[in-house]
Amino acid sequence: MDSKNRIGELMEIIIYVQDMNRQVSFYRDQIGFEVINPPKSEDYGKEFWVELNTGACKLALHAGGKGRIGVDAPKFVFRVEDILAARQYLLNQQVEMGEIRSAAPGVWVCDGADPEGNKFSIESHD
Domain count of the chain? Predict the structure, then answer.
């Protein structure tokens, strides 16, 4: 497998949450993970995205969860060097993949699903 289409390390797990303050408090204060983005906030309930350092990969809390089974399930994100090549490689392997989109300036994401419908993303940065 060419290094450009290689699926890399697990870089983050995204959890869709309903109550950001409660979830940040749990993962920070009870579990002990450090909040790395945003580093300080007076009210995490106003944040849409919060990242915590878990070691090898980040735990990302994403606002807007509604508790919908299958829709708000955690998502695994894998780092790739070249998202175009990695997506094409996965399509060639008969993996269900969506279109590439820009999640933020310089951040490219493409969603996929495993054979049982578990969602994952591949992500590259400019």
Answer: 2
Beta bridge partners of 17: 63
One-letter identity of residue 68? R
Task: Specify whether 117 is located in the same domain as 83.
Answer: yes
CA 123/CA 12 separation, integer angstroms: 10
φ/ψ of residue 15, rounded to 5: -115, 125
Cα 14 to Cα 60: distance, rounded to the nearest angstrom: 5
Looking up tokens 């890399």, which residue turns up?
8
Q: For residue 44, what are the domain limits?
A: 19-63
Which residues touch 11 (CB under 8 Å, ≥6 apart)? 57, 58, 77, 78, 79, 123
Task: Kindly report the CATH number assigned to the domain that includes residue 88.
Answer: 3.10.180.10
Query: Which residue is listed with tokens 């060097």?
Result: 81
pLDDT tens-digit map of 84-117: 999 999 999 999 899 999 999 999 999 998 877 7
The whole-angstrom separation of Cα 62 and Cα 49 is 5
- Same domain for 95 and 118, yes or no, is yes
The model's pTM: 0.77
